Amino acid sequence: MTGKAESKDINLALQGGGAHGAFAWGVLDRLLEDDRLRIEAISATSAGAMNAAVCADGLLRGGPGEAREALHDFWKDISEAGRYGPIFPSLASLFTGSHSLDDSPSYQMFDLLSRLFSPYQFNPFNINPLRTVLESHVDFDALRTTAGALRLNICATNVETGKIRIFENPELTVDSVLASACLPFLFQSVEVDGEYFWDGGYIGNPAIFPLITGSRSCDVVIVHINPIKRKGCPKTAAEILNRLNEISFNSSLMREMRAIAFVSDLIDRGKIKDGEMKRMHMHSIRAEDLMTSLGVSSKLNTDWRFLVSLRDHGRAAAERWLDGCYDRIGIESTIDIRAEFL
């Protein structure tokens, strides 16, 4: 473990992506291990929202070590829920250790049924094993009411208006996190305060603006799950749909990064006086070669060996980022926003 010679504050932005969220688990595990860093706030969506809630709960109960243990236990229970859960009772066993089942007849049948029948038809009692897992791992009352709890911004999509909803600590419940992770082909919409919500990835994956307006730190570390670039033109129906989802789930992030680049350019050109607007330092932790190698079906793979493998890749990616970028935190961005997002 590194020393405390220089401690720096960062904000985290955690993307969603089903079981691929175990990659972000690994990133968090490594960042929490480094006592030179303090996490000021997290903006998160879908699986990222679950990681954020579990991490915040662990930090509140016992600090970074407790948070790391909480994340491990949470993903272990996710693996068990995927194996025995009432919605996908044999999903994990279908994978038999493989990362992808895109060409499997079993997966193709499952995929077809999810498109022919809505979750209101194939799951009329709205059973969701994620609810039980979250409730057993997160004290939402404490996150709502305890002073000093890690500030969370959980993103969901309002079904009726198409607008983004950011659930902050005073509004956090198991329903707000489930709303952020509600894929409409798999789960019934989640009702919160008389409004209906789907996965936040459609409109903010994740949202950056809450970290700009509500945090002292100017540094935002984005933990990418969905690849921004994917070489080649998709040809099969599954490949086309997967790429469309990746583009859709990255579109809001692309727009926000363009806005950040625009403001930074105005500051550089002296069009905005110092202090009138906040210059953001943007950072990125990703493993695009890994993520582009995984089939779309692997987002449903809760096999423990697969989740641990993603965790280890996340830890390695965070280690590379710390080695190459730590000294630049608080000084400048470590990604070229124009090259990557404009």
Task: Summarize the helices and strands and which ones pair or pack.
Layout: E1 8-14, H1 21-33, E2 37-45, H2 47-62, H3 64-84, H4 91-95, H5 105-116, H6 119-122, H7 129-137, H8 140-145, E3 151-158, E4 164-168, H9 174-180, E5 190-192, E6 195-199, H10 209-213, E7 219-223, H11 237-268, E8 281-285, H12 288-293, H13 304-325, H14 337-341
Parallel strand pairs: 1-2, 1-7, 2-3, 7-8
Antiparallel strand pairs: 3-4, 3-6, 5-6
Helix pairs in contact: 1-2, 1-3, 1-13, 2-3, 3-7
Record keyword descriptors for this entry.
8-stranded mixed beta sheet; 342 residues; 8 strands; alpha/beta
Summed up, what is this model?
The protein has 342 residues and is of the alpha/beta class.
How would you characterize this protein structure?
The structure is a single chain. This protein has 342 residues and is of the alpha/beta class. Helices cover 48% and strands 14% of the residues. It has 14 helices and 8 strands. The chain has helices at residues 21-33, 47-62, 64-84, 91-95, 105-116, 119-122, 129-137, 140-145, 174-180, 209-213, 237-268, 288-293, 304-325, 337-341; strands spanning 8-14, 37-45, 151-158, 164-168, 190-192, 195-199, 219-223, 281-285. Strands 1, 2, 3, 4, 5, 6, 7 and 8 form an 8-stranded mixed beta sheet that branches. The radius of gyration is 19 Å and the shape is globular.
